[in-house]
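Table 4 source record.
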Amino acid sequence: MFSAVALDGLPEIAAGEDLGALIAAAAGGAGLGGLADGDVLVIAHKAISKAEGRVRRLAEVVPTERAVALAAEQGGKDPRHVQVVLDETRQLLRAERNVLICITHHGFVCANAGVDASNAPADEPETLILLPADPDASARALRARLRELTGAQIGVIVTDSFGRAWRHGQVDVAIGIAGVAPSDDWRGRSDSVGRELRATWIATADELAAAADLARGKDSRQPAVVLRGLATHVTADDGPGVGALLRPAAEDMFR
């Protein structure tokens, strides 16, 4: 059994905010008795991005000719928005059906390079939120700050909502990991009747990200969720990060 508790009381996050202090305080008032060893903090990347100043104001963006052309092809999108997507993109894979499928500079394959206007500050309607520059580093820094403040040895997962091939809808996945085993590889082990498992490779961090998302609403302003009862997945060191979950291009049948 495990629990998932969304933290209330977090304010609108501003650049330079001590996110660790805000989370530690919110966890103390969430009926959890504060953070404890073995907890996993799952946090939507937008809180991290805002604290790190990873936002772009459209008034400051000058679109290139390529952005203008793509915007027209995409049903009249704002060329400035398209330019921000291109700036966050290592490679543009597809441009159709009003969406750009990109490989980000991190190596993520996702829609619009993770650039999004939802949950931007209400008083800045023409502001876009970008993915953190280095989500693993963000997760490690937040983990260290929370251990400094609370003494608890926890895991941290930074998430974003990604679409999936062959299926409708989006699911929260890990884009930054610290102190959590990214996956559980069962290949070479046996199933319950002794058959060798050849393909079973559980994306643990993604499953934790999706589980946490069920505890909050998309409009709830609750970016942080504490998972308790999953200490078996928490590691002493920060671990390899999200790179362990990324499929190499040579194995990607969609490219």
